[in-house]
Amino acid sequence: MVADLPLLKAFFLSRCFDKRFCQMGIVEKYRLRDRMMRAMTIDGKFRATVIKATDLSNDAAKRHVLNPLGSVILSELLMGGLLAASNLSEDERISLRLEVAGDIKSAVVEANMMGEVRGYLGNPHPVPLSEESAGMKNLAIGAGLLHVTRTRAGVTAPAQSTVMLEHGNIAKDLTHYFGVSEQIPTAIGLEVRFNEDFSIRHAVGFMIQAMPALDVNRLAKEELDTVVELETNIIDMSRPCEILEEGGYIEDLMGALLKGKDYIELSKTPVDFYCRCTKERFLSGLALLGIDELSTLDGEKEELRCHYCNSVYTVTQEEIQTEIARLKS
């Protein structure tokens, strides 16, 4: 417990002006923090990840000034990115990039297994074209391509894969990607629920996968029974937000997902909308333009915006001249 105190203090200070959190005790605030939990069945044949991403989803919606439909779609993408990254190594990250015919135009999400995720929609204000919530999302995404890129530190060539979007549904299309590109039988579920003011009340997701050593085409009867049992669990928790509504947390989500199976917890990681952009990185990017291009920036200042987190950095003419002088030297 002592090792968690700095994180506990930082989390409390970040929430001290949030009325909803101020009504809770500090231990309760820490317990309900957004997290991702990983587990494996004792027999080693299935692994599962569950995630609560309510606060990071609200953070993303606020940063990008999303409308409710955009909030749902980006929230699901952010959770999908974290689920896809949950079994990577610490020096890897994954990128999900959508090119679609629907109203969001495009989307990009980057995540790693340490719980850091960032992303944006090409159009933050997609127009609802259906009266039914699932139809709204499907039409806003539409047909297109999902590009998945895995990058490892120190490795120059990333691993890339592209699949057609078959459903216009983040959970189903990620499930399709894992089955086609990685040949891993996978089930993914994502749900977002609103408050009356259209802030996100709950954002939760889960993923269960057969381990690579399990040949799902040649299952023994006992293994087949396990698959049927897990499929039943997934159907039973088709609305995972209900578990949070009833006061549950990610342990309860995992318990419902793997009900009837003994499992061990592998990790429990805080998750956040987190971008590594800095003004210094933007200045380094400007330097790549070269002296001639930089010399054409003759305004008093330039505003540079990060697509991922919507942060704006102001670069003065003096800073631009400093970069030009540095390049000349």
Shape: globular
Q: Reading side by side through the largest sheet, how are the strands ordered?
A: 7-6-3-4-5-11
- List unreliable stretches of 5+ residues: 1-19
What is the CATH superfamily classification of the largest domain? Hsp33 domain
Query: What's the helical proportion of residues?
Result: 25-40%
The average pLDDT is 84
Radius of gyration: 22 Å
Q: For this structure, what is the CATH class of the largest domain?
A: Alpha Beta
In sequence order, what are the helices and strands, one letter per element?
HHHEEHHEEEHEEHEEHHHEEHHEEH
Number of strands: 13
Main sheet properties? 6 strands, mixed
Molecular structure report:
The protein is an alpha+beta fold. It folds into three domains: 33 residues, no CATH class; 240 residues, Hsp33 domain (3-Layer(bab) Sandwich), CATH 3.55.30; 50 residues, HSP33 redox switch-like (CBS domain Like, Alpha-Beta Complex). The protein is built from 13 helices and 13 strands. A hairpin with a 5-residue loop joins β3 and β4. α4 crosses α5. The protein is globular, with a radius of gyration of 22 Å. The N and C termini lie far apart (53 Å).
